[in-house]
Each structure stands twice: as C-alpha cells, then as structure tokens.
Prior knowledge:
Elements lengths: L8 H15 L9 H15 L15 H4 L4 E2 L9 H4 L10 E6 L2 E2 L13 E5 H6 L3 H6 L10 H8 L5 E5 L9 E7 L6 E3 L2 E6 L4 E10 L5 E11 L4 E8 L5 E11 L4 E8 L4 E10 L5 E10 L4 E10 L5 E10 L4 E10 L7 E10 L5 E10 L5 E9 L3 H9 L4 H17 L5 H21 L1
Parallel strand pairs: 1-7, 2-6, 5-8, 6-9, 7-10, 8-10, 9-11, 10-12, 11-13, 12-14, 13-15, 14-16, 15-17, 16-18, 17-19, 18-20, 19-21
Antiparallel strand pairs: 2-3, 4-5
Helix pairs in contact: 2-7, 8-9, 9-10
Amino acid sequence: MKTMSNSSTDSIIKWYETQFQAQEKSVLNGNGLGDLRASAMKNFSERGFPTTRDEEWRFTNVAPITKAMFNVAPGSRQSVSDETVQPHFFGGLQCHRLVFVNGSFVVELSSIPNLSKGAFITNLQDALKQGHAIAQEHLGKYASFTDNAFTSLNTAFLQDGLFVHVSDGVSVDVPVHAIYLSTGTTDAFVSYPRNLIVVGRNGRLSLVESYVHATNVSYLTNAVTEVVLSEDAVVEHDKLQDEAATAYHISATHVHQSTRSTYTSNAVSIGGAIVRNNITTVLNAERCECTLNGLSLGTGTQLVDNHTAIDHAKPNCASHELYKAVLDGKARGVFNGKIFVRKDAQKTDAKQTNKTVLLSDDAGMDTKPQLEIFADDVKCTHGATVGQLDDEQVFYLRSRGLGINEARDILTFAFASDVISRVHIEPLREQLDMKIRDRLQKGRMSA
C-alpha cells in the first residue's frame, strides 16, 4: 500500500481530487447530485483530514488511513460466489437480502421476496436512476459533510448503497438485511456505501447491516447511513462490523425523528484495525424515544472509537444509551457520548451508561460522557466505569471447579451478552452470541 509522508498533505488531497475527476465521467449526476458531490469534494479539499489536534479526534489517530493512497474499489462482482456470501446470512434469518460487493450492488447474490404494497426496497443507484422522489428529496439532507472529512469523501464518491422507503401505515413483514462484503487480492482499495432509509407515518421496519470481508489486503470502508422516521414510525437498526484485521472502518449514521417515533440501534464492532463509528440522532418532535446500544471487542493493537450524539431538540422525549467494550492485548477503545438538551426540550428523560472491561494491563480506554443541558425541567443521568474482571467472581467460579480461563470467559461473555440480548431478531442474536464467544476465545489465546 502506497503512503504519503507527513509533509504531503497537499499530495494526498490531490490524490482524491484526481480520483474524483476520473469518477465523475462515469457516474449518475442528474437531479442535483452532481452539485452535491462537487460541494462535498470542495469541502474536503479545503479542510483535509482530521488530526489528533482536532478535539473530536484527539484520542484516535487516523494517520494510517489519511496517508494511504486507496484506489476506489472497482464496481464489479469480483468473482464472488454464493458460497462466499452464505456464511454471512445469519442462519435461518428470513429477510429481504441485498448484497453489495466493494460497495456495488450484486443482484445475483441478493434476494428480495415479493414486497407488501407500500414498501420499496432496492439499491440507491437504481432508485436515483428511476427518479424516485423520496430518494431525491432526502438524500444528503441529514448527514452533513461540512465538519467531517470522511462524510465529505463519502458524499463526493457517492454511488451505491441501500435504499428503503416504507409508506405510511406499512409494516415490512421481515427484516431487511444489507451485506457489505469487501474483497480483493492486491491493491489497497476504498468503498463508499451510502444508505438511505425513509419510514413513513406509523411505518415499521427492522434493518440489519453487516460489514464483512473475504480478503486480507488493506482496505477502507467509508460508510454513511441516513435514517428518517416520520410520525409514530418504529425502526430497529442492528449493525455488525466484522471487517478484516487489516481493514479500516469509518461510519456515520444520522437519524432524524418525528413525533412519537421510536428508534433503536444495536451496534456491534469486532473487526478492523482502526474503527470509528459516529451515530447522531435528532429527536426533532415531541414524545420521541431513542435507544442506542453498543458493544466493542478489541484485541491485539485494534482501536475502536464510538462517538454518539443524541440531540433532544423538543420536549417530552426519552433516550437510553448503553455502550460496552471488552479490550485485550494492547487494544484501545474510545467512547464519547454527547447528550444535548435544547432550551425548549423540557421534560427530557435521558440516561447514558458506558462500561469497559480491560482483560490485560496493556489495554486502555478513553471515555468521555457529556451532558449539555439548556432546559431546567429534565431528568438526565450519565456514568462511565473502566475496570477489570471482579476477582471475587473469578474465585467463586474457580471454587466450583472451573479453570481460570474458563471462569474469565464466562464472566466476560456475561458482560458482553447484556448488549446482545437486546437484539430482537432471534437468528441474528444467536449468531452474534456465537461470534462473540469465538472472538473472545481467540482474543484470549492470541493475548
């Protein structure tokens, strides 16, 4: 993988500008999309990548990403077989399945059964080509690229991803599962998945995102997801990030909620060398409810950074947040959770909890829970703990005949499973259980 030196910031920006110009000759640019792309590229060119001098990135050094010269992933199937994708189907999960290889939709690997009237599920590129009004209305309206270089690049190179529109009063009968598979053999590459989910009044949707791999080369996944909930809409959004150990994963999820809507996120990160997950939710009407659950597993020299922001913009809303991390080896974790309560957001009820277990003396966690409250009639709590396994609990299990490793594994899994148990889709929950057990055991053995 080619990299630039510290003094070559202008050169790396030029690298992306050149790739952008080459791509513009072959992508869809109608209906203002070209202007959106151009504005995003201009913003990136002027601001460049973040460094540890930026407050939002001071615990996460992304220099290995920002100095690398990633080629835009080719938009082809890359000879991926059904057998390569099937292990990522979560067993017997009945669903609408869309498979993206290196960011591009592959219809031959996908399966979308007959949809109930009022549900539209496809890939974003086709929706834009067909002139879908909802896609054109909402795309790019919530994921601002002005203060995030990676979102700028995603928007500039926007090409494909998942598009879901659920009409008013429609409940999608089975989950929608989007699989983003990265594969390649030689050059380092980058893909830019872009997802747009719009759920109408009183609509219901269960969404699963899986970021997985069939390669060990260095690559970057730079994903952006926009989720829009209308009045009384309900969305459960489960995300699994299981990238290669040689990969980098940067994601941004932006959620906009309307009156009495309910949004639940369960995010699990177990792969990647450097991972940054941003989740921003705006409770933009009364009586919204938002729940953010997250679990990170890190070993070796992994870095997993979770940044969340819950914006209580209107009164009488509730939010609940639980983020956990298990770190072994020399892994590092970051949690920055912000809760904003605006001046008019009276009767807000917000709870935030961050807990970390360190399984080695060399692992570390930087946690920063934040409350910014501008209203006076609210109920808000937050807390963070970082520690090791309880010696008394380990001793208790060993006194019952368990070995030291088995006792530690049981306690660690119990700590992690608190998040997994909140996933409502049973086949997904069972597969996550198996992945967590397997990853914890491998992490202990490698450590």
